[in-house]
C-alpha cells in the first residue's frame, strides 16, 4: 500500500506541502497505513517546523499508534530532544506507556529518554 501524499510530504519535511494539505481542509489527525498521524511522523523525523504547524492546527498530541507510542515517545526514540520539549510545552501527556513491544512495554517518554542516555531530556520528563 502506498503512503498517502500527506504522509510522504511530512516524512520528507516538506513544510509547504503540509501547509497546503491543511489549508485544503484535511483532517490533521488522519492516519497513514501504519496508523500514524502527521504529528507522529513529523516528531519521529525531527521536523520541528512541521510539528509547530500541526500543533497550531490542533493536532491531537496524545493519540497513539502501534505499541501505544505517542508523538512524544517517537521524538524521544529518534533522539529529537527539541521536538520532544516542544510537545511537552504544548501539553503532551508524559504518562502514556508503551505496550507489547520489547523495550517499550510499560515505558513512558521519561523511561525511553533515560534508556537512551538523554539525561537532560529525561530530567525534563521525570515524573512529578
Q: How would you describe this structure to a colleague?
A:
This protein has helices at residues 5-12, 15-23, 38-45, 48-56, 71-77, 81-89, 109-115, 119-125. The protein is globular, with a radius of gyration of 14 Å. Helix content is 50%, strand content 0%. It has 128 residues and is mostly helical. The chain contains eight helices and no strands. The protein has one domain (5-125): Alpha Horseshoe (Serine Threonine Protein Phosphatase 5, Tetratricopeptide repeat). The protein starts with a helix and ends with a helix.
Fill in the keyword field for this structure.
128 residues, Serine Threonine Protein Phosphatase 5, Tetratricopeptide repeat, mainly alpha, 0% strand, 8 helices
Enter the CATH topology name. Serine Threonine Protein Phosphatase 5, Tetratricopeptide repeat
Strand content: under 5%
Q: What's the CATH class label?
A: Mainly Alpha
CATH architecture: Alpha Horseshoe
Number of strands: 0
Low-confidence sequence ranges: none
Question: How would you summarize the topology of this molecule?
Answer:
Elements: H1 5-12, H2 15-23, H3 38-45, H4 48-56, H5 71-77, H6 81-89, H7 109-115, H8 119-125
Outline:
The protein is an all-alpha fold. The chain has helices at residues 5-12, 15-23, 38-45, 48-56, 71-77, 81-89, 109-115, 119-125.
Amino acid at each position: 500500500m502506498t503512503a498517502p501524499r500527506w504522509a510522504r510530504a511530512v516524512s520528507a519535511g516538506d513544510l509547504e506541502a503540509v501547509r497546503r494539505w491543511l489549508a485544503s481542509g484535511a483532517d490533521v489527525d488522519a492516519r497513514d497505513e501504519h496508523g500514524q498521524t502527521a504529528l507522529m511522523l513529523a516528531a519521529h523525523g525531527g521536523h520541528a517546523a512541521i510539528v509547530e504547524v500541526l500543533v497550531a492546527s490542533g493536532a491531537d498530541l496524545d493519540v497513539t499508534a502501534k505499541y501505544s507510542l505517542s508523538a512524544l515517545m517517537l521524538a524521544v526514540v529518534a533522539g529529537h530532544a527539541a521536538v520532544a520539549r516542544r510537545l511537552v510545552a504544548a501539553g503532551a501527556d508524559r504518562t502514556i506507556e508503551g505496550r507489547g513491544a520489547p523495550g517499550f512495554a510499560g515505558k513512558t517518554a521519561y523511561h525511553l529518554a533515560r534508556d537512551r542516555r538523554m539525561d537532560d531530556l529525561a530530567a525534563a520528563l521525570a515524573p512529578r
